[in-house]
């Protein structure tokens, strides 16, 4: 009894700690912290000030690679950020079930739910109006986001909203105040405004049906960035609603059980007691209502929200455990949130029975019940897919088999595929390095010979942005035939090189000769007078005037989302050849120095270029390999300097933790590799250039029970420079490791310091080679 | 041997006769003429002068109720006539595989083929350009159209094109001249221009794939009047093409085997000898490429064009034989072409395996391998569906079962359904009279109790154009809530009456009372001061100003495609009640007299109003029953006069044979009934009002081996008036017959004359009753 008071204090303290830990996503649990505790889904969701950037990520609930990604939207017609959620917005309009993570173009946002209280608005506006007409203030102090769980207090209504999910089902738990007019609104018109020039969204058809007082069904058919998406939903409520109000455009209906149209909303009306919880399960299917019902019954039969949330968290824990690290709390948060973002897609868009919408928009069935999409390949071939080969090798095969289905239908592999549907966003054919890389890494589960036919056909079949008959005829892409010609020339030469390597492995000598020749066509656009890759016209003359600082966007200019400075470095298949073009290591290093220090004095930058160090723009992918290029030209300490600077200044654990769009895992994968000390400059040659590790320790379980480990002595922003390296206990001077080093379970040790060791890694034989196998 | 010369002459004569008969569609065969010989598909395909009208029919090849309807298109972006073919156009742009017959809105036109010779055009124009860029002159002298067969000489290229089809497959036979540059073009961008305000067409995705030198496959996904159509095709060529040129927008590709995009074309290139025939079979599926292949292999495995054409002709002969008539050659041509047009749709849009695109745009399977669509119900419930109940009773059940699938998905029956997809064109819910009529006629093969639930729900579920909560609240449709309010009020009252009758039959007394009350709501819009049905506002006041001659279109006015004069007569469920409203027979007859003689002095007519006799406009459906109303008010000889006049002056066997859009069989069905002497003024009460038969004889096989026959003494335009009637040999004075008279196999005999017999049919008991069972 005498300890009562103390016990009370202890209890109170524990409560404070628990509350705090909950807000930190259980970071302070006893025992070794669960890795999920480091994941902060709010990272990358909004710029902290007008000069910083968002990653365009969303904070809501998803399982790894899940179809349903249930997240709050802060705008009625979400356009920018494309995730639908901006950390700086003060209100939430509801929770929709599908999202894109880190993209530059918005789409999805299917089946928005919003709980409210009070009088229903009687004037829902005109047929074009976006949004449910309802929004609520919220604060980040009353918001929690973790793997598989999101919650927020909707202050206008006094409702706590909690979200979790399975692969196909979103689960909502709304804690209402006492109110005789509580509502859960459903908005099927929530999507990007149809007024966008490209990929304008238009709802082709929609329906909401009241099955009984516990059940709503419906669908919407929509064309947008994905040409055609059919989204069927089946929603079940834990408490019977008293009535349903169905709204089509500007007309409201009570006592109606079904409504069809293009702009549909519904309000399910309840009488709630104080703190009464109403749960909703919303299952989606891209194929049919029947499949939506089946997805629900298979995946989420009961009403135990906490169990579903725990199961989701456990799934994440399993996936995150594929890399274990030691480092600072901040590093762990950036690293595991990065891994979380990398595993947020590609998404399995097949139903539990394997049905999916095929590339030709018919309905097909996947025997392995998996069809992956959301392939932002221009971004993700660089480091995200190489990361998947290490820690998601089974899924890598499934990704490839899914991409192969597009080849079978279209005749070429995906360029940018969303919801199983090619949208021709960006340039290049970078499913090719993904597949060739997987083939050389020995990923099991796909047919290499068939895959070879696919990568070859993808480089011989003319298609939008890829005029290959022009390519072989001119041996460069003429800007007056195909815009973005310099970028396409450079990137296609790389894809050609990849196919050449696989041709060689498969003893297809003629093919090898054809593609290896094409892989050197980049030389045809090198202007020795300016020292840049420049656009030529079909008559062979340079396109004038030329300004190496001038940006292009996505058409109308020779450079894609960048300028001649940023594209100069894109010859990952032959860096030595590139160095030769400018006259050797010294000239190359001088050019790199200028690149990293030249402040842009030109006019408008491309909106995707951000995170600058001189002309280097870490916020967009064309720059991602460039800091590592000093390894190839004898000054690896400069690679170390810039990589360290990028890791320490262009990533953080705030809502503006990325220097630009996170791009479906690519921006995160750059961090994950670089923080461990190496990066795949050429994502398909089995070579990783060494940079500047910032973590204390990292370990990756590899095949046969082995573990690849990295240990770093004296890491930190103040110690960017490698003093020495050991590989498996032996001094190591090379500025690279190989895939073989990783999969054999090597131990890599770094000793870091504040001053460069200019003796390390600078001999000619220390340079990363063209081929790592 | 001596007879050789004579034999030669006879042979030559026979050849001439055969050639002539072929051009007349085998009209002169020995023995009784085949009924197909009377079918002239060119009827209704184009106005003969600028003051006449087309039926908007197409002349091409189809089997009865076929999915593929393969026909020449004379315009690149066909809009008006909606069939794609205008008899007055001098050039043909190609042959597409799907068409609408007689509608006022255009859509379909899938997979256009065009044979040409000469240099391929190297500049295919911009991405928006419609058409293959090729067209050829033709003449009607070198054009033949018959059931299941169409041919035309393409004069620009010297190519004879012949077409035939099965349900899912179009078969082309092109006879080429000698040419090293012969081509068959495929255009997947051929469709209505996307610039239309409503139901704008947009191709969501398309593909053309060269499988081998004999085979092309592809698809297009398009949104238009039908919200979403997926059209997969598999095409086989009898002769291997030497090469294929694939075109996407403005870029041409040779040596490419597959192309994807939205504006796709292909040229298959041949070297042909003189008179060389190249055949093409194109199978369509609305579900998948695999199904298109299966449709071809099941329906059309060989290459015998003539056999396919003969089989199609035989199918038509079987269907046309369901009514046998005697009359003049012209009457037979109008009559059987009308029957042909009536059987051109609804179309079975299911694949041979039963797969079809369901109303909710998922893929479903019909156990009976049939899913019918193209339900232009505002038109066809009046006489086309009543005709189907008599001569297509099995299909009537299939039509109803198909419509029921929309009810299951949408909660209400089709209004205007195309390609399985509701487009909410026109007003009313006239699947209801179709189903109620079929139920009372005892059509087997559908579940009457379920159908009752559907017709009831269709009148209680608010949906576009049908605000039923408003209906019961105001007991009329207020124009300030729902435009076209007078027309909707009148037509909904009729639908209500139909449901009331079925409720009574099924002993649902409460429902009966509810709907029979609603069926009299038309009275609430009758303005005793003007003598017209007029629009009221929700405050109960009349909408002013009122001009009974002013036309409405499809919104923005109380009247639908007509004026207050034309809509005055729409109380088919209670003509006696209507007569009472105006004060009795004399006033009613005077008003009818005025209606048929009042020349319109107002401003612009609605584009659908045509075929005028005073205010009567036979070219559009609101007028169709009006000439028969004198039967109800004691002056049947005026019905006879006007019906005779309509039959003899507003139908002919030219390309401008209809007084307006043929409307999916309705305009033809009016002729078919009226020419036999009777018409279903109320299409669901089992009563047919007697008009003025123009045929000499008609017989319809009915159940149990019985035959209903009509014999007419002294028919003809000069003898419009009934002198006397016998039913089963007994004098008959009633101005109507019943469904029972027909199905019992009665014999109806008319004696006609030049002067009215005003004693016949004028007693009160001679008037058509409200109920015929």
TrEMBL record, chains A, B:
An annotated Gene Ontology molecular function: peptide-N4-(N-acetyl-beta-glucosaminyl)asparagine amidase activity
InterPro entries: 6-hairpin_glycosidase_sf, GH-type_carb-bd, GH92_a_mannosidase_put, GH92_N, Glyco_hydro_92, PNGase
Domain Glycosyl hydrolase family: 291-753
A Pfam family this chain is assigned to: Glyco_hydro_92
PANTHER family recorded: PEPTIDE N-GLYCANASE PNGASE -RELATED, SECRETED PROTEIN
GO annotation, biological process: carbohydrate metabolic process; glycoprotein catabolic process
Domain of life: Bacteria
Domain annotation Glycosyl hydrolase family 92 N-terminal: ranges: 38-285
A cellular-component GO term for this protein: cytosol
Organism name: Mucilaginibacter paludis DSM 18603
Subunit details: Monomer.
Leader sequence segment: 1-27
UniProt keyword list: Calcium, Signal
Protein name, UniProt field: Alpha-1,2-mannosidase
Cofactors named for this entry: Ca(2+)
Statement: the UniProt record of this protein carries the keyword Calcium: yes
């Amino acid at each position: 009894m005498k300890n009562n008071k103390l016990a009370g204090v202890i209890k109170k303290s524990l409560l404070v700690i628990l509350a705090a830990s909950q807000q930190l996503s259980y970071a302070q649990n006893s025992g070794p912290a669960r890795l999920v505790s480091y994941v902060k889904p709010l990272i990358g969701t909004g710029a902290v000030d007008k000069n910083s950037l968002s990653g365009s990520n969303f904070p809501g609930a998803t399982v790894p690679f899940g179809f349903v990604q249930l997240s709050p939207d802060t705008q009625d017609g979400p356009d920018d950020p494309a995730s639908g959620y901006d950390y700086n917005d003060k209100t939430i309009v509801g929770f929709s079930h599908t999202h894109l993570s880190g993209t530059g173009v918005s789409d999805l946002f299917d089946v928005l739910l919003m709980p409210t209280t009070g009088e229903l608005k009687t004037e829902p506006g005109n047929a074009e109006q976006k949004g449910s007409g309802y929004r609520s203030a919220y604060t980040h102090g009353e918001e929690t986001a973790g793997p598989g769980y999101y919650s927020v207090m909707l202050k206008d209504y006094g409702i706590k909203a909690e979200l979790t999910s399975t692969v196909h089902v979103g689960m909502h738990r709304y804690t209402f105040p006492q109110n005789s007019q509580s509502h859960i609104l459903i908005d099927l018109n929530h999507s990007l405004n149809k007024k966008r020039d490209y990929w304008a969204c238009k709802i082709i058809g929609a329906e909401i049906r009241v099955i009984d007082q516990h059940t709503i069904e419906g669908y919407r058919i929509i064309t947008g960035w994905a040409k055609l998406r059919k989204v069927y939903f089946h929603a079940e409520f834990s408490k019977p609603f008293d009535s349903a109000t169905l709204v089509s455009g500007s007309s409201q209906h009570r006592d109606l059980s079904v409504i069809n149209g293009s702009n549909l909303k519904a309000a399910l009306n309840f009488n709630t007691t104080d703190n009464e919880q109403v749960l909703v399960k919303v299952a989606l299917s891209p194929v049919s209502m029947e499949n939506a019902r089946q997805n629900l019954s298979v995946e989420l039969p009961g009403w135990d929200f906490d169990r579903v949330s725990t199961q989701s968290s456990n799934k994440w824990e399993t996936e995150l455990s594929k890399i274990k690290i030691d480092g600072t709390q901040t590093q762990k948060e950036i690293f595991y949130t990065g891994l979380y973002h990398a595993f947020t897609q590609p998404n399995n868009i097949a139903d539990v029975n394997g049905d999916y919408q095929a590339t030709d928009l018919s309905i097909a069935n996947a025997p392995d019940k998996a069809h992956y999409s959301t392939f932002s390949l221009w971004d993700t071939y660089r480091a995200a897919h190489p990361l998947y080969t290490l820690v998601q090798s089974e899924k890598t095969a499934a990704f490839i088999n899914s991409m192969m289905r597009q080849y079978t239908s279209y005749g070429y592999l995906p360029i940018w595929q969303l919801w199983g549907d090619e949208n021709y966003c960006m340039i290049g054919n970078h499913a090719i390095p993904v597949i060739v890389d997987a083939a050389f890494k020995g990923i099991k589960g796909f047919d290499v010979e068939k895959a070879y036919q696919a990568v070859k056909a993808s480089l011989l079949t003319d298609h939008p942005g890829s005029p290959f008959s022009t390519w072989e005829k001119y041996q460069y892409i003429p800007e007056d035939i195909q815009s973005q010609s310099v970028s396409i020339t450079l990137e296609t030469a790389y894809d050609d090189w990849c196919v050449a390597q696989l041709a060689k492995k498969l003893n297809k000598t003629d093919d090898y000769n054809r593609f290896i020749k094409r892989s050197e066509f980049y030389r045809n656009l090198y202007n020795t007078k300016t020292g840049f890759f420049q656009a030529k016209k079909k008559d062979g003359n340079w396109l004038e005037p030329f300004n190496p600082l001038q940006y292009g966007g996505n058409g109308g200019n020779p450079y894609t989302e960048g300028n001649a400075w940023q594209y100069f470095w894109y010859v990952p298949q032959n860096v030595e050849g590139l160095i030769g073009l400018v006259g050797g290591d010294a000239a190359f290093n001088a050019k790199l120095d200028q690149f990293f220090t030249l402040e842009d004095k030109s006019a408008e930058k491309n909106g995707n270029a951000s995170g600058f160090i001189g002309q280097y723009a870490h916020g967009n992918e064309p720059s991602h390999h460039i800091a590592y290029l000093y390894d190839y030209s004898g000054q690896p300490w400069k690679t170390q300097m810039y990589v360290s600077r990028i890791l320490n200044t262009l990533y953080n654990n705030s809502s503006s933790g990325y220097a630009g769009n996170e791009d479906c895992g690519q921006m995160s994968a750059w961090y994950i590799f670089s923080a461990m000390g190496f990066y795949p400059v050429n994502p398909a040659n089995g070579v990783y250039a060494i940079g500047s590790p910032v973590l204390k320790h990292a370990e990756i379980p590899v095949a046969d029970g082995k573990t690849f480990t990295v240990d770093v002595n004296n890491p930190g922003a103040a110690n960017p420079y490698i003093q020495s390296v050991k590989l498996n206990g032996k001094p190591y001077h090379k500025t690279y490791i190989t895939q073989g080093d990783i999969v054999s379970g090597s131990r890599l040790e770094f000793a870091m310091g504040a001053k460069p060791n200019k003796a390390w890694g600078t001999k000619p034989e220390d340079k990363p080679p063209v081929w790592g196998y």
